[in-house]
Amino acid sequence: MKQRWFLYVLVMSLLVLGPAVAQAESDAVLVLQVEGVINPFTSRYLERGLRLAEEQGAQALIVTLDTPGGLESSMREMVQMLLQAPLPTIVYVTPGGARATSAGLFVLLAADVAAMSPATHMGAAHPVPLGTELSEVMEQKVVSDAAALVRSVAESRGRNADWAEKAVRENLSITASEALDLGVVDLMANDLSDLLRQLDGREVSGTRLAMVGVLPQVHEMNILERFFQVITEPNIAYLLLSLGTLLLLAELANPGLSIAGAGCLVAYVIAFVGLGSLPVNWAAIALLGLSVAFFLVGLLTDTEAVVSIAGLVPFVLGSLLLFSPFSATSPSAPAARVSPWLIGIMALSIAAFSVWVLRAILIASRQGPQAGAQRLIGMQGVALTQLNPTGQVVVDLQEWSAIAVDEEIAAGESVLITGVSGVRLHVKRIISQ
């Protein structure tokens, strides 16, 4: 009898709790957090989030957004994914002070529900030529293409397509409250909890959302995606580029593959990966390259002071113009700039390094033949590395940078010091008798 009662209670419990468990699973809401420049990794993040939400049977996907814009190709991929999403999607511009400009405008309008926090803004998606005039035909083509896309996206979601088109053609921006009044967005929520409360009972794409008691599941970016987001921040990309230059000068001041040389290579590679998602002025890159050439001439000759000061001019100009293209950028491209404080710090750092090298040269030149590098003239040493023509030698138990004045010298060969230029020895091979 007791067994029958136990089976009866078990069956009734399954009948009652089973649908509740299934309902709880379907009530899941997945949250993605998109911050910074929109790039291929952002697009991949959204794709993975949509796939995960579908696999978990989530009733909706929420994307919190704060972006100045990004790559047009990535933006179009994200728009297409949102328009074709297998479940309701909500893009929410948050927290206060966040923005959805340039590419962010397109992404926001592509969601089933567009929401914003107070003190946020959106818009500003007009391609602006900087430093030169864009041909009328080309400008009209770029603007018309972007305007047609944003209008079609807004119309497909039943939003104010006229304003969306003006945001591209006239570079308009509006606040969250203005966007709500104009019918550009659907909701204005103070935070995520307020957003869920307002979404409860709302019918989206044929699905009635049930948000009461829902605990959002935040699905964060993986390490690679986070790393890419960090390096596409304009100040970080510029800092890596400047550090690469400083490490290059350090390597060339004391040649031979060292930590400085390896660090220079890594910094330059990562910097250019980050610059690939930003509107870069390649003339500014050329100016930065010219400044490096000046610094190198100063290091390898006796004109360190004059050439280094001259090199700072193209360095500062290139830094200021780095994210100011001379041609019109895509409407999805972010408005990027480098902090003047960071430019000043890096310029002073390079100047300080040049002064340090110059000081070493002056000390060596003022000391008599029995002190400093001059005392080594006429002495013999051994090549630590191949000199072709530069490398490292050991003289009087000390390691020095050296240059072969006549012909290539192999590692291990004996050398004679014939002169000094700056902090570098001039050597020639000692021919065995």
Description:
It is a single chain. The strands form 4 sheets. A 6-stranded parallel β-sheet has the order 8-5-3-2-1-11. A 5-stranded mixed barrel has the order 12-13-14-16-15. Strands 4-6-7 form a 3-stranded mixed β-sheet. It is of the alpha/beta class and 433 residues long. The longest helix has 27 residues. About 7% of the residues have low confidence. Helix 2 runs parallel beside helix 3 and helix 12 packs antiparallel against helix 13. It has 3 domains: 221 residues, Alpha-Beta Complex (2-enoyl-CoA Hydratase, Chain A, domain 1), CATH 3.90.226; 134 residues; 57 residues, Nucleic acid-binding proteins (OB fold (Dihydrolipoamide Acetyltransferase, E2P), Beta Barrel), CATH 2.40.50.140. It is 50% helix and 16% strand.
How many structural domains does the protein architecture include?
Answer: 3
Largest sheet: 6 strands, parallel
CATH homolog superfamily of the largest domain: 2-enoyl-CoA Hydratase, Chain A, domain 1
Number of helices: 14
Oligomer status: single chain
Helix-strand category: alpha/beta
Strand content: 15-25%
Which overall shape is indicated by the principal axes computed on the Cα atoms?
elongated
